[in-house]
Every structure is written in structure tokens, then in C-alpha cells.
């Protein structure tokens, strides 16, 4: 699984487009980046498990012409690691924005909380969902799956892209159930393939809009 690269940072001297990917057959990580506008003395790549203190940081030094590093530390399965590439200059340090990597991605341990919003329009359920923490997600979110069930009809599921940058902002999902009682739920797919973890189902009662 590959984490997305970052946009160019504020400092033109910093590394940019930092990408983290897993190394097949190991729990190691491959980190690659693009050089900034100036060649540094050296690069320092540092990594730390999410939520750990600074004394738990591991790091390695690299020559200035290296634009990648293999991290072969003891990465715990399903644990997110914050990885930072820093360019070192006589004038000081130029860190790139940190990225997250996983030695091995696992199925999440919880799905998101889901709640009902006012119908938009009337008769079309709208819902919002909360963010799942990195510790619960245990991998990069590839896509989510919305499922709806109306009365006794079979469930209908649709895949969608995850929120690009702010999963705590409540996007709206829409379904097209028939009038009457039913349910909605959301499944996550980090690291695919399944198993996947889904939210608790949200009971709905679809109203008929005027004119139907």
C-alpha cells in the first residue's frame, strides 16, 4: 500500500513529494522523496509510532544524493508510524511535512459513527459520519462502501472515495430506498481486500416527498 505524496512544503529547501510504501515480504518501509531547490549536507529520516514520546524516535542519516531510504526496523503490524524527512544545511534544518506509513496494514477494529441529517430532498435520506482514528483504522483508507436496505428488499451497496483531507467534515451520502422503514450503514476498506469493518446500522424511516 502506498501513502500519497505531499505537496511542496513552505521551505523550498525541504524535500517534497514524500511517499511511503511497504516492502514486499517484510515489515519494512521504503521512503522516497524529491530534492528541494538546494542540495543539503545530508538527509535524516525519522520515524515514531503514533502517540509515542520523542525518546521513542528512530532515525537514520543519508548522503545528500540519496532520495530514498529502506527502513527495516521492527514495525508493529497495523500500527501507524509518523515519518519525517529532514534536509540538513549549515544554516539549519528543513523538514518536509510528515507522512504516515504502516509496516503491514490490517482490517480496522471499528467503523465510523453514523448519524441522520435532514432529508435532501424530502424522501432521500442524507447522513453524516465521523472520523475513525488511525489506531482503529490500522491502514490507509482505500474506499468506503455505503449500503442501504429498504423494508424486505435486498441491500444495495455503492463504493465511494474517502474524504480527501478532512474525514471529520461530514460529507453527505445518499441512497434511493423505497418509502418505509430501513437501514443505512458504512463499511471501510483500508488495505483491501476484506475483511472490512462497518459501522453500526442506522435505522431510517423514509418519508414520501410531495408529488410522489
Percentage of helical residues? under 10%
Main beta sheet strand tally, sense and closure = 5 strands, antiparallel
In total, the number of domains comes to 2
The CATH topology assignment of the largest domain is Immunoglobulin-like
What would CATH call the class of the largest domain?
Answer: Mainly Beta
Q: Could you name the ranges where pLDDT drops below 50 across 5 or more consecutive residues?
A: 4-8, 164-181, 191-197, 204-212
Which series of helices and strands comes N to C?
EEEEEEEEEEHEEEEEE
- Give the second-level CATH assignment, the architecture of the largest domain: Sandwich
Cα end-to-end separation:
47 Å
Sheet-strand content, in percent, reads 35-45%
CATH evolutionary superfamily of the largest domain: Immunoglobulins
**In DSSP terms, counting alpha (H) and pi (I) runs of 4 or more, how many helices?**
1
Strand-pairing-aware structural class:
mainly beta
Radius of gyration: 22 Å
What overall form do the CA principal axes indicate? elongated
- Give the overall average pLDDT: 75
Number of strands: 16
Please give a structural write-up:
The protein is mainly beta. Strands 3, 4, 6, 7 and 8 form a five-stranded antiparallel beta sheet that branches. A hairpin with a 6-residue loop joins strand 1 (16-22) and strand 2 (29-34). The protein starts with 15 loop residues before the first strand and ends in a 6-residue tail after the last strand. The chain folds into two domains: 16-101, Immunoglobulin-like (Sandwich), CATH 2.60.40; 114-206, Immunoglobulins (Immunoglobulin-like, Sandwich). It has one helix spanning 134-137; strands spanning 16-22, 29-34, 42-49, 58-62, 68-71, 81-89, 92-95, 99-101, 114-117, 126-129, 141-150, 156-160, 173-174, 180-190, 197-198, 202-206. Helices cover 2% and strands 42% of the residues.
